[in-house]
Batch of 4 targets.
Target 1
Amino acid sequence: MSDRPKTPLLDQVTRPADLKQFNDSQLRQVADELRRETISAVSVTGGHLGAGLGVVELTVALHAVFDTPRDKVIWDVGHQCYPHKILTGRRERIRTLRMKDGLSGFTKRSESPYDPFGAAHSSTSISAALGFAVARDLGGVTPEGLGDAIAVIGDGAMSAGMAFEAMNNAGHLKKRLIVILNDNEMSIAPPVGALSSYLSRLYAEEPFQELKAAAKGAVSLLPEPFREGARRAKEMLKGMAVGGTLFEELGFSYLGPIDGHDMDQLLPVLRTVKARATGPILIHVLTKKGKGYAPAEAARDKGHATARFDVLTGEQSKSPSNAPSYTRVFADSLVQEAALDDKICAVTAAMPDGTGLNLFAERYPSRCFDVGIAEQHGVTFAAALAAGGMKPFCTMYSTFLQRGYDQVVHDVAIQRLPVRFAIDRAGLVGADGATHAGSFDIAFLANLPGFTVMAAADEAELVHMVATAAAHDDGPIAFRFPRGEGTGVDMPERGEPLEIGKGRMIRQGSRVAILSFGTRLSEVLKACEALDAKGITPTVADARFAKPLDKDLILSLAADHDALITIEEGAVGGFGSHVAQLLSDEGVFDHGLKFRSMVLPDIFIDQASPEDMYAVAGMNAADIEAKVLHVLGVAQIAGKRA
């Protein structure tokens, strides 16, 4: 295509081994071409742009120096892996990123041998690299072989406890292991905490030009005759990297900081490490997120996640919204509640913008806490805030809350502490695929004693659920809502607390009742329109609560209808399972009720649009209509009519 960038050297690269033919100045050109190709590709697909642009030179240098896929390069989180995918035989498909049947937006083992470990949650890379290093030394076998293990981890991800658990273990085991700290001072939100300040001091307190010179001095570490030069360079580096002590105390040799966009530093340092490293070593690399693309560099989030965009202007092509997003409705409602109650506070784990808490932080900065990528800590911190008389809203994506599950059980549920869990990105989320789907929270929360679990059917219900959570002091309470726009319903001026454990009737019908939990209600109502045309009028109810269940509502639906169907945007073991347990306990099945439960299938659904993902799940209006016809035994008639 004519609008594609010219990339004469990159065109010669079909796999990383092809980089070995180039000299260092040519590798610099490959990096420039790779940056242009990445920008071009993401302009077509949308996706995570800034992180990949920040590691272009590092990606080229790693693949030029090491022997992948025998050497394992593990990208933490993986949202920076687009340049890596272009170099590892996937360039032809790079414009299918994050699309149905296309490339994943993260590393994925089933996609390529160059992705040795799949990731989409942060802070796992050092643990994985150590596992590969130990497997190598114990004689483990993989089709590509086992060589070096290299973890590339960002400064935001390094703040998570798991990264330190892994470093502590690696320092103890003393295995040859390479950790590259990709320090761009910019995770999704500005990184917080003592580690971030510590890293800032590493390069703020020393003249960076001298560090550059020192890193270039590392060239002299390679040839044997220059041992004296090598010794001096090492001492110079150690003297200047005053803060390297933290990593050295954990058992790592520390090298850096070096300029991650300067191939004259990256290549010799990586070659030296490859030739000489014995135990664990940490290379501290400074990069800029969004590097080399002005619109990304200028953006507040450095182009972290973008829609499709115009390459020349950087302008994103987002379709206009007809209704507010659920996230915005939650944020506005929480701000409104906090204005009336100074005990309300909010906790998030490195996602203030994604969860809408940036709006809360602007209004009430002393009551908003971003704990960094530390969901376990965030949950326990919220538990103690509740024990201390505050009303904490622990606000996390469903997929990230999974990381704090032990704390949800032990620190919140067992102690019956009134932590309010605001669970964003519930259900299937689209382009981020299986790793970010909020599939399991209904099941893993509703089985905990004393927990109240709600799901909003639309944005107006969400406003009421925020008010319900704010008013609820009797144990933990959770409410879930999806990514994306609401349904365009009329909005209340302010939320009214709901009666705990009470659902609502939506429409009265006969023969079959549909009990909906969450935002599939709009699809249920579409299905009912189609069924009405066939002379079938289902009863529809909105459960609102998965725990405690509205027993009276459920038992009356069961008594008054031939069939009952539940539907939820969650895995088996959630709302429908609790309804089935109730009906079983009450002996309802002894009298011939037909019961069906529509849940997400027992598979991980790959990325596509949310509509396509729900089609795979069999949970769109047409699927609901088919389920009703089938349970009533009229599917055949419907087929003949059609």
Note: Residues 605 and 613 are 7 Å apart (CA to CA).
Target 2
Amino acid sequence: MADAVAQILQQPAAQPQSDEGLAYYLRRGRGGIVCNVMFDHYLESEEHWQSFIAGIQMCAQLGMPVWIYDEKGYPSGTAGGLVLRGHPELEALVLAHDPQANPEYFFRRAYEHTHASNNYHALRRYINLMDDHATARFIEVTHEAYYRKVGEHFGKTIVAFFTDEPSLMAVDLGPIPEPARSKVPVEDAVDPNVKPLPTVPWCHDFAEVYRRRWGEDIQSQWKSLFEGDSSEDRRIRRQFWSTVADLVADRYFGQIQSWCRAHRVASSGHNLHEESIYHHVPLYGNGLKAISRMDIPGLDMLTSNPESVIHMSWMTAAMPLSGALLEGHRRVMTEVSDFIQKMSGAGPVSLLQMQATAGWQAAWGVTEFTLYYSPEDRTPDENWQYGQFVGRLNTILKPAIPQPHVALYYPIYDLWAEYRPVAGPLHQSPAPPRAEQIISSFVRLGQTFQRRQIPFILIDHEHLAQAAVTPHGTVRVGNAEIATLVFPMGVELPPETQKVVERFTAQKGRVIYDQPNDSINVNNAVARIQPDLAIQPPSDRIVLGRFSRDDHTILVLVNVGQEAYRGTLQGVNERAWTRLDPATGDRQQLKPLNNALGLELAPYQTLLFVD
């Protein structure tokens, strides 16, 4: 929606695009906007700044909250190239390995064969997320410019900044497909002579930081970053990627978060390749740690096929929900659209599909819906109905706290040890066998819990090591209280994390390990995990979210399938329940029978149940 709204904001104030102006969006169920100053002469045209200021003033008059999009396109961090202008030392840097070169280990700028030169917006050199000076310059050029121009609206009309797919440029994601690739503008020429090589991220003071932290010389350990199966190789890789993760989280996400908080706005955004945990190593060090350093972590949902949630979209949603809860926050945002359907010729999608896609994301804790649906693809009434649907969901759920009782271990600590950089696209090279086993188990467990209505979050070794074990057999961290910990096959816990798990077990907490001869799947998950709520008969197409508000339990049930579901929801308490339909506003009082509620869900229907 940012681009569409920007077209209105970028008109001269005396020449509005339509008689409705920004009220056009209000009349179509949109409550606020995400916007930026015009991309042409980005951040440098006083005329465009005046148009932007006029637009912000209009939003203030209309009571429309504003989020500022922090980049000219994406990925965020370059300010449309302004950050690196005159500062080439701030560009992304990698240590490359070429056995045929002399020396075989050397530093080079990270541009060719990376996301910076393979995205849908522009081929443009990129900053180093591990470099504190690079982020400081980005904030100076971007955030400070907005504050100088419209700072009086910060904390009032302007409530957040959004950062879009920043990442380390230390991995080949592969080229985007033609014909799109040949149409992407080239702002920085690509050198065809740059070889695709295995690389790892680097920054100006990495060796010094590493030496202070570990008391070791990283240069003498370079070989282990690229190869080797010994315990010493794995130890070095864990130390290296742990350092990378801390630098990315602190120097990019943390620095932006600190600036935003000091200026009365929230930090938000979403990361790249949320659905691919193996990519989280070279892109962020620790993807969960990175996204946890946002006040309103988010996801990018390019499809409005509701069934996508039972495949890998659960992972895309689990990351920001987990980051929020583990850090004691509540709000989660989504960029949602029917981009894939429209690109394939199958879109725009129906209102029912839009509502079901919103419904399952709400079940996963999403509170802020940023729409990239074109308002012109639907009638004003359909747009309004969608806005009403989301508004009713948020009226109930936004003040409520998600209550997943299960945590699935996020095995980044193990993937640090197993990750080996490759020349060429990472997804085209098989991961080492142990990494494949861990990832396969992790993905199967997440899909299984999603398909068997078991709400859960992800927890990494660092958050688990910081968790408090309660006397009644739970672990508590942030806004999450977990009764069951589930570990993927083959993981090894660091000592401080293992101690927490042992204390948790001693307090009768439930710890479950996925095993080669005793794996968890859709046929045995309910028996193994023993959730207190379950539906009968089982269905892969029902999504369940659980929340708590003012001593009330709120359940969100969504049918993401094309067939009606009829059954029962078992395990509810015997108090009277209220059934709410966010599509119509209808409500109905229900009385459980033998701790079960009758459950009927039409295709793509969302229902809320409140005790």
Note: The CA atoms of residues 469 and 475 lie 5 Å apart.
Target 3
Amino acid sequence: MTFRVWAPKAERVRVRVDGVEHAMTAGDGGWWSAAVDGEDYAFLLDDSTDALPDPRSLRQPSGVHGPSRRYDHGDFEWTDGDWTGRALAGGVVYELHVGTFTPERTLDAAIGKLDHLVDLGITLVEVLPMNSFDGTAGWGYDGVLWGAVHEPYGGPDAFKRFVDACHAKGLGVLLDVVYNHLGPSGAYLDRFGPYFAGRNDWGPGLNLDGPGSDEVRRYVLDNALGWLRDFHVDGLRLDAVHALQDRRATHLLEELAVEVDALSAGLGRPLTLIAESDLNDARLVTAREGGGYGLQAQWSDDLHHCLHVALTGETHGYYADFAEPGALARTLREVFFHAGTWSSFRERTHGRPVDTRVLPGYRFLAYLQNHDQIGNRATGDRMSASVSPGLLACGAAIVFCSPYTPMVFMGEEWAASTPWQFFASFPDPELAEAVRTGRRREFGAHGWGESEVPDPMDPATVERSTLLWAEVEKPEHRDVLDLYRSLIALRKAHPELADPRLDEFHAEQLGTVLVLHRGDLRLVCNLGATAVTQSLDTDGGWVLLASGDVALVGQAVRLPAESFAIVQAIGSSSNQPTSASRSANS
């Protein structure tokens, strides 16, 4: 086979294959090559004795500091030849971390839990980063070799088995990828060429617009296309795209969208790009014909923050703005709370309005919890640790009855008791100590006692964060799971609940009561501590689903504290209760 590597500044490059060094030949554009047979290989630059892994490695069996191993995509036998993909519109996303999803912490073990997701009603599984990082346990956002599947999870074949198994069960797969920075250990890219340009909050950032950046951009694009093409992944979640520094006329994200659209046409299945962005700028998900980047969707943290404040009452830090009266209904209607308005946390105006006449709601993901919003709390506590079951049910109903794409974080569907804490396992003791003390100081500065912050390097932190699947059979957890199943089933049975047209959607907030208008359906939530009777703009009907002992009384619905009801009006096109419904006197 031919080994190739981009090293434009090097005067001499060698490749060590199975322990034997071979000279490489310089070619055009700074690329070096050598035709050698073998399996394990690493590169040596100029007179250095450091044998470095391949920046485009597909397998790292000895970790991120060891040699790369040749890997042939053609050797894997796929069984998903009839797979036609899963569109995001109308779907439900499930976010999971392989290392804490099961006690085995492997992709093969995760396959054994896919029936649970199918039964729940999930359509797309979003997997946290698979790329290689230093150590055995970690979130995955400290990756340094973006094309190699983390070996402790099972390596590349295991990820292919996982994707193949998902497709066999009708589940699409989204992969979380991190192009905005590299981790602190094993990031050797800058030794090969001008890959880096400055730093951001998390580490070295990529050179996307300076000298030599054409190949750096190609490095990102080829990596993204490889996951979609060679691993049969159905979409990518792009981590923190606001940290991508790119001053070119065509932003990297737009270039990526163009190439992914071309690949989608060639493969004959939809491919989805979902951005995580702090910009509150809908240009990311606006079609290129309309002057946007052409991504399919982005996360909506503003909606999460509004829900979090409404359900928990927390108003510290960046949550303060979202305590404004009516913030939840307004954000449900308009997508962003900060839309060219003042952000006290940032001490400046932030964001821009969304044109709800032309942008559909499914392009924005709605969620009660996600890995960041749980894991970046000092103790990694889930919402269920401090919020009543009634309010959790209301929050879930709001998410699933909204015009947005719902996303569930693993274990949320049964109110898992396990936290999800920040953890890592860097072998370098100095780096490990720096991460440990830095984490504690960060939260100490925000008012947490440093002793409250779990040691991210302690294996017990990973153990605490691992789902306890036996909980599913306990009544208090089973009730929550049944509710989630019912909400998802109702969303599928009644198309108006998944209707993404924002200009046809209305939400109103009346004190502690929130009402969502979904065609002939009404979601009424009582977020308060006392019972209420809420007037409806209908002549009665049926209660399709409720979380408490509710009753229709004339043209009103009576709800106990911290409960919701989904009401179907008389005279609608579907005027009989469905199998997911329960009837009530009108």
Note: Residues 108 and 158 are 6 Å apart (CA to CA).
Target 4
Amino acid sequence: MSVDGWNTVLVLGGIRSGKSEFAESLVTDAPVVRYVATAPEGDPEDTEWAARLAAHRARRPGSWTTEETTEDPRRLADVIESAEPNEMLLVDDLGGWVTVLLDPDHQPADDVATIAELAEAIRGCAARVVLVSPEVGLSLVPTTPLGRAFTDALGAANRAVADACDAVVLVVAGQPVWLKPAPTATERSAPTTVTAPTAAATAPVVASLSDTEPTPEVQLPDVLTPTPPAAPTAESGNPWAAPTMALPMVSTGLVIQPGMELPMPDEYAGPQAVDRLATLDVPGAGLGVLDRVVGFAAATQGTSTPVAWGSVRVLLLHGDHAGGAAAGTVAGESARRAAQARAGQGALARLAAESGASLQVVDTPASAPIEDQPALAPEQVESALRYGWRLAEQAADAGVQLLVLGACGAGTEAAAAAVLAATAGAEPPAVLGRVITDSGEIDDAAWMIRCAAVRDALHRTRRSSRGAKDILAELGGGDVAVATGVLLGATARRVPVLLDGPIGLAAGMVSRDLAGQARHWCLLADHGGHPAVRLAADVLGLTPLLDLRMDLGEGANALVALPLLRSVLALSAALPVHPSLTGTDDTDPAADEPESTDPSYADPDLTEPDPTEPDFAEPEPAGPGPASTGADEQPASSWRAG
């Protein structure tokens, strides 16, 4: 396809920026695509590089043809120059091409002349071409001659190709920014997040808010919780009281749209906190990999001496997925688990009670069979996103310092696999975990039904947009949509989120296309053995702290790890500086003993949603259970996020 008459496009971006996925989205509508691979195979012992190449190959549709130019870098210009007018070429990428060009096996070679030949071939090409290349010059100058030669050659290639192409786009953190041609006066006046020239781009243009029609609202299920709601506060009628940042509003409330500017954690506090650990009187080798917990808490709290999270709230999202996604599950089992949690029973409620955390069960809209139809209507997606945002707002207003996100529902793993396939190019069988029956047996037939459901859903939506809201409507469903809203709302109020399970990670994948800052407020304690969690964590840059391989249900694994994380933070805050760094030799143990604090943890009451908001139903009070039996006082060292 051409992009508004542009036949040649250069897609630039850093490592893991999403440039290849964006380039592939530009050619999805083309009937015939010739993929030109330029990267060398590399060292046979380098399994990580081989896995990257395999992931790229697996992401290509079966209708594409592949052509290799690794043996002769000069051949790339010949391929482009000889392409027919009805062809679509996708060249990925120029970084690999320059690597081969500078390889000693191809020397002596005039790389300047070869780059010039490539630029001329692009100018005279009759076919439509999309080229991918890493952007250079944004980091330090390499310290080796070979490294400097590579950056110089790649920079020269990028400049020459950008000059020859009709359009140039820079992908930063998954967000495309069009550099060429310059936006028109109309485009400059519109408050768009990305000046995208085509609907095929992953971040659609957002219309002016003054021209936006109010979105129809869908009534969501009641929010049930083991603690009675507090009395309404005497605030103004605005349900978005004291937001962290100014966000776009219309008559129906908050506008959740791609490219929102949400806050980032403190970029200096995290490294300072980790450096401070090296000065403490810690025996042995210190905290090991758990120093990342200290850095994360410091960045999200905005201080180099973070304290342990006192007030913690668990959000358990309950919503079923119909059709083949739920194959192998017992009817009514998820409802039983949700009712059990409401009553303060079961593993999740017991662990919440032990940790002094409040537990809130949230009923999300049921999702239709994705193999036959969209999981949700567009208006349901809008309402679910706002509902999740409001849940995070409620938590921040109640003084919650950490959210734990979990889910229970039939078909959640298949829904997460579908989202990963749409956002990261994953193959459904690779990210769908085995189906285990109640008797502990492996149900391969149910697993195959789930794979088929996801495959059919992807085939049904192969020509639809891959925007965040479209993915939620077509594939994700109610629980993923509400979880996405929770992540965005928590980010806006500077509340960190402890993820646990496929639904939370799938929401993280979707939220990055709405606000890329959200993933920086997320922490992953354990992958739980889920292949979908492993892949999504790798894409989002979240490294699991533990490898316990427990499977107690979403949210429970995080609560098992929570006391350990709290202990690490408490230790880092209480230990003194090593005497060798202070110039003293104080051996009095009483001098180093910190003041005692109340060891209890607060269990704040949940703020009742504003009944005037169409997104929310009146909450039903429920009797208190073990999950809500924490102390009623805040600890002396508590901090207020947001």
Note: Residues 13 and 135 are 5 Å apart (CA to CA).
